[in-house]
Amino acid sequence: MNRTIRRATVPAALVLALGLAACSSDATDDETTTDTGGEETSTGAELSGEIAGAGASSQGAAMEAWMVGFMDANPDANVTYDPIGSGGGREQFTSGGTDFAGSDAYLGDEEIAAAEETCGAEGFIEFAGYISPIAIAYNLPGVEELNLSASAVAQIFDGQITSWDDPAIAELNPDAELPDTNITAVHRSDESGTTENFVDYLAQAAPEDWPYEVSGDWPTQSGEAAPQTQGVRAALDGGEGTIGYIDASQVGDLGVAAIQVGEEFVEYSPEAAAAVVDAAELAEGRPTYSYAFDLPRDTTESGVYPIVLVSYQLACLEYEDQETTDLVKGFLSYVISPEGQDAAAQNAGSAPISEALRTQAQEAIDAITVAG
Predict the structure, then answer these.
(1) HEC string of 241-272?
(2) Are 146 and 173 in contact (CB under 8 A)?
(3) pLDDT single digits (tens) 308-364
(4) Which of 14, 107, 241, 337 to pair with 285, CA 20 to 30 A apart?
(5) Vertex 78 angle, CA 63 and 229, to 5°
(6) Could you give the CA distance from residue 229 to residue 187 in angstroms, rounded to a whole number?
């Protein structure tokens, strides 16, 4: 076993954890626990100890809700999470720097090998715990509704369409008064699962207009780069004429485009996002407890929103001590529970996972054990 946890990410994560502690200050030792959040150990005691996670900033609002709910039910437990981005989270996890991670993309082949080396012979688990639309948000005063096709989105983010009154946009919005304002397309500067999901949509739905390989790194030199979800939101807020892809939970009062699917334009919603996940198939050739999906982004099915972020939870199948094992299992069980999913939906606008996904995830979580 090479799993020696390095707490390099904890100082940043403590900023979030301290805020959560303030939110949870009313919790008492005799508080009634939930079935999953208040899971007990074999000795009958509430869960205790500390675990650290890092990863997708898109999960930030949901993670806040999960940590508050779980730590309210288990006052002696401390869970921290550093929203450094999916790429950073996967790197921290596969190198042994955290106990768990959140990622908007499933592990690649090299990352699988690294995770298996770090976690030990039994390997790791990987399941979808957070589903959310990726909104195409824009800052264009006076334009309250905007329709875009996959082709138009691809050309905008590739720097081929540079003005808001371009004929390709005007044709999709015959009733809108589009200004001649220059378009500034904002993309992530850091490696990001949100980027990978967005680029995957462009590659599938507009292959003639988007010739780049799918990756978590932005592939072109056009547009403006900003770090993490918060940075993209700040860039959109700060510049008239901007457009960017962002987790729907972070849209706020920005305008949001409806995306063409078949013959209709579909606005994002948790229900429309969940519909495309239900139509997805498990990726082939994965480890036993890797429940990773390949989404049909080019669907033409009515009512489906295809630009969806499926964010995964990562954990080892073995930990070196019982306390960490129990805490990881208890926390992840709360994440996927109806209560945990409802808390995320209320705090982040995410789509609750289906019962089938919950069953898969619980099977993986139940397989976590103490090494040796």
Answers:
(1) CEEEEEEHHHCCCCEECEEEECCEEECCCHHH
(2) yes
(3) 988 999 999 999 999 999 999 999 999 999 999 999 999 988 989 989 899 999 999
(4) 337
(5) 25
(6) 10
